[in-house]
Amino acid sequence: MATVLLGHSKITSLVAVALLVGGSLGGCAKIELSSKKPSTTATTTAATSTSPTTQANSSPPGQMQAGQVPTSVAGDWKVGFQFNTSTLNSTFHLDQVGQTFKGTGTDDQDGNAFTIEKGTVANGQVHFFKQYQGNPPVEYSGKLEIQDDATYHGPYMSGDYTTASNGKIISNIWEAQMILPNNGLAGAPPPDQAPPNQAPPPDQQAPQQPERTLLSNWPADRAPHLSGKWDVGYEYNFKTMRSSMFIEQDGDRITGHGVDLNTKEKFTIEKGWYHYPKITIIRKYTKGKNQASSSRTMAFKASVSFVNDKDYQGPYMSGKTQGGGNWEAQRVE
């Protein structure tokens, strides 16, 4: 980021709070994330369309190789999901019959219990509902594949979740990896093979593998959902302006409203287009009392990315205004 418009990189003063989504998503422990942005070195093999013959695979999950397609989600899973600017986690156990599954789980920090209901898996796609007692269900959908990198080898799921809270639709990203012996790392001895009696000399021992953190390697080609509150910085008339902007995304259409904090001028997002990674937002200011000093429109064009550093994890926009000034934004709610 060549120009820091928000006063500090990724707005470090904004505190990520694990709020309840309709009483459903709160109280989960925060995953310790790497300070680096998403890595592109990890290799994943998507479990997409193949015939039922190629899909069938009886290999134990931890021994499946890249290119093999998992058909079972039965077992214990560690889940990470993005909520506002926080990464939260939980653990659940799944039981599968045919192409359907169900299960139970808990949020890691406070032990809030939930059930997994109406789960289906077919052709490398998963779909299920996470249900807390007395709250709206959280709908999860995504892909089932084999993750194969330096820190984990085994079944892996990733996708989007959606739920309703106070009349609003909340949507974001999630991923999960199966809990396997030796954390799913290559080189673990088969279960029926005893480890050697004598350890090799220290200079011949394999280096300890780093622990993989969920959501630290979010795929660069997956479009983040943009609905929510954003903190914006932009250049205008040789000044740096700050805005609070509320975005509502409906498919590839963007609407919303906001206020410039420097001048207290209000605006609406008259129209907007989102074709990942490109986005265009048209702000409309209307002259009037408690509105704006003049009637005008401003176009903001940007590229959308998913940032994962020590100060901020979440969707991020940066680009140019119609006057050629720099602007950037990150979501805070």
Summarize the structure.
With 333 residues, this protein is mostly beta strands. The chain is built from 1 helix and 18 strands.
Describe the structure.
The protein has 333 residues and is mostly beta strands. It folds into 2 domains: 29-204, Lipocalin, CATH 2.40.128; 228-331, Beta Barrel (Lipocalin), CATH 2.40.128. 1% of the residues lie in helices and 49% in strands. The protein is built from 1 helix and 18 strands. The protein has one helix at 52-55, and strands at residues 29-30, 43-46, 75-83, 86-97, 100-107, 113-122, 125-131, 138-148, 153-165, 168-178, 228-236, 239-250, 253-260, 266-275, 278-285, 296-308, 313-321, 326-331. The strands form 2 sheets. The chain has an 8-stranded antiparallel beta barrel. A hairpin with a 2-residue loop joins β4 and β5. The longest helix has 4 residues, at 52-55. The protein is elongated. The two termini are 22 Å apart. Residues 7-56 and 185-191 have low confidence and may be disordered.
Question: Which labels suit this protein?
Answer:
18 strands; elongated; Lipocalin; 1 helix; eight-stranded antiparallel beta barrel; single chain; mainly beta; 333 residues; 2 domains
Q: In which order are the strands of the major sheet placed?
A: 3-4-5-6-7-8-9-10
Total beta strand runs = 18
CATH superfamily of the largest domain: Quinohemoprotein amine dehydrogenase alpha subunit, domain 2
Query: What's the tally of helices?
Result: 1
Strand content: over 45%
What quaternary form is this? Answer: single chain
Task: Return the domain count.
Answer: 2
Poorly predicted segments: 7-56, 185-191
Q: Which structural class is indicated by helix and strand composition?
A: mainly beta
- Biggest sheet record: 8 strands, antiparallel, barrel
Shape: elongated
Q: What is the percent of helical residues?
A: under 10%
Mean pLDDT: 74
